[in-house]
């Protein structure tokens, strides 16, 4: 992995890096303060190129041009090759926010708004709080603009189905896919509350009588065949999964039912329906797995490999830890800091690879474009980040002082350090300079029979048998606890998340 490779702004060479090209919506006082801070503090990683404002008397603000009205966002974002659109108009109606976000997504730009996590801490928002919106100093690198405009070739005027649509990743996928103007976007989730919220955001109404919002469980193979046969999607993004590592250590049968059998149910139904492209979301924990989560996701990758070679292009994408997703580190930190509680970290030296939700979804979209079948794609996320350093930087950005850290010990299945590739895998280049492909291991010679045994044990809720069969089906799975503090786990209190 080439962690030394620097991020390049789209308008510059490696030697003239200036950050992501940024369009500010609103040339009022908030927009001026925003532009001032971006111009003064290069560490924000954003390079302002101009404003949008409906006041036609404004021509230049902070030496930057006013490039058009708010309704011109698509034209301006395309012409100026914008990476990020920042909303600097307090009280902007949600319908207008949705319109701006949809238009920006069509050219692969992300939309940010104030306030962010600072608002959750109920603090006054000032210009420098923008720092909390940008994660370069949290993840140790500039945020990458991953998805290219060419993604439109596989999304526009196509029927796209997204499982787990109501989750953090699934909902962001829906937003960005919606921006590429598919013929139809089918949002599938087993949680009707999440679907209601998402439909309200994307459509402006949420009566839930639309055929585009589908309540269904990926564990139900017959239901998956029914859905695929009815909608005939051309592109499927499979984001539905169980992802909390400690929870799956306690309930391995549920991990198998959702992450392995559920993935196979959706994939086989998609193959029967003649889907053109199918992308499964995996995790870096699938590389040399030590947890049930990692093992079930590694098997999901092998399910993809096992079913490649036909007319459906199937692939997988490995994520690092996604900042801001539900149950991930930043929301937990916000909750703990706001309550004045100790911040819980497993180990002083624990590191993780991090990516933003925008990067994660961009990687999924770009993988769907790049795939020729059976690949597992990985984003170059730079060097891993010490959690202790990330917490310190995050607290500093929010001006939270005297953060108390309590170390709790690594939990069963957790690694001190994650890796993006197994020691048995090769890291292969792709046509994208920051996306790599893992040459995954061949499947076990008895893969099909072992999967059937695994599914049978999971349905009988035989946890010990599931663990044994996981090890048989996936020899690289080593479930023993690892790390310098593993010995204290039995007595250590468990943190809320990290």
Automatic annotation (TrEMBL):
Polysaccharide biosynthesis protein CapD-like domain sequence ranges: 160-438
Pfam families: CoA_binding_3 (PF13727), Polysacc_synt_2 (PF02719)
Family per similarity comment: Belongs to the polysaccharide synthase family.
PANTHER family, per the entry: POLYSACCHARIDE BIOSYNTHESIS PROTEIN EPSC-RELATED, UDP-N-ACETYLGLUCOSAMINE 4,6-DEHYDRATASE
Protein name (record): Polysaccharide biosynthesis protein CapD-like domain-containing protein
Organism this protein belongs to: Terrabacter lapilli
């Amino acid at each position: 992995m080439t962690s030394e490779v620097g991020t390049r702004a789209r308008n510059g060479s490696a030697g003239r890096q200036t950050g992501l090209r940024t369009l500010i919506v609103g040339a009022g006082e908030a927009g001026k303060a925003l532009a001032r801070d971006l111009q003064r503090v290069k560490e924000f990683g954003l390079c302002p190129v101009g404003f949008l404002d409906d006041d036609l008397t404004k021509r230049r603000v902070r030496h930057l041009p006013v490039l058009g009205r708010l309704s011109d966002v698509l034209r301006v974002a395309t012409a100026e090759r914008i990476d990020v659109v920042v909303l600097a108009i307090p009280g902007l109606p949600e319908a207008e926010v949705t319109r701006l976000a949809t238009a920006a997504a069509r050219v692969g730009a992300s939309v940010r708004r104030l306030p962010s996590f600072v608002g959750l801490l109920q603090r006054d928002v000032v210009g420098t709080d923008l720092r909390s919106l940008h994660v370069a100093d949290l993840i140790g690198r500039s945020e990458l603009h991953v998805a290219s405009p060419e993604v439109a070739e596989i999304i526009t005027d196509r029927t796209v189905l997204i499982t787990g649509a109501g989750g953090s990743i699934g909902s962001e996928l829906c937003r960005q896919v919606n921006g590429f103007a598919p013929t139809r976007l089918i949002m599938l989730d087993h949680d009707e509350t999440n679907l209601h919220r998402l439909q309200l955001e994307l459509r402006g109404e949420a009566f839930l009588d639309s055929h585009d919002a589908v309540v269904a469980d990926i564990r139900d193979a017959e239901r998956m065949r029914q859905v695929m046969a009815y909608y005939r999607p051309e592109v499927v993004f499979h984001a539905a999964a169980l992802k909390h590592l400690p929870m799956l250590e306690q309930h391995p049968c549920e991990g198998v039912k959702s992450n392995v059998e559920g993935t196979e149910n959706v994939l086989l139904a998609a193959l029967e329906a003649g889907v053109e492209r199918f992308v499964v979301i995996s995790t870096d924990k699938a590389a040399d797995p030590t947890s049930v989560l990692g093992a079930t996701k590694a098997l999901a990758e092998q399910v993809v490999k096992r079913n490649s070679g036909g007319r459906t292009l199937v692939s997988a994408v490995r994520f690092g830890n996604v900042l801001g997703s539900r149950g991930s580190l930043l929301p937990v930190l916000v909750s703990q800091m706001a309550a004045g509680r100790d911040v819980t970290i497993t180990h002083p030296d624990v590191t993780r690879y991090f990516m933003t939700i925008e990067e994660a979804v961009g990687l999924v979209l770009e993988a769907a474009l790049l795939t020729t079948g059976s690949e597992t794609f990985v984003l170059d996320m730079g060097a891993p980040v010490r959690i202790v350093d990330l917490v310190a930087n995050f607290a500093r950005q929010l001006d939270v002082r005297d953060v108390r850290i309590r170390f709790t010990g690594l939990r069963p299945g957790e690694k001190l350090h994650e890796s993006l590739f197994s020691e048995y895998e090769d890291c292969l280049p792709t046509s994208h300079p920051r996306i790599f492909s893992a040459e995954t291991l061949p499947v076990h010679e008895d893969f099909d029979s072992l999967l059937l045994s695994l599914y049978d044990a999971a349905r009988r809720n035989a946890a010990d048998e599931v663990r044994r069969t996981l090890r048989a089906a996936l020899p690289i799975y080593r479930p023993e606890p690892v790390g310098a503090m593993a010995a204290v786990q039995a007595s250590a209190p468990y943190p809320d998340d990290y």
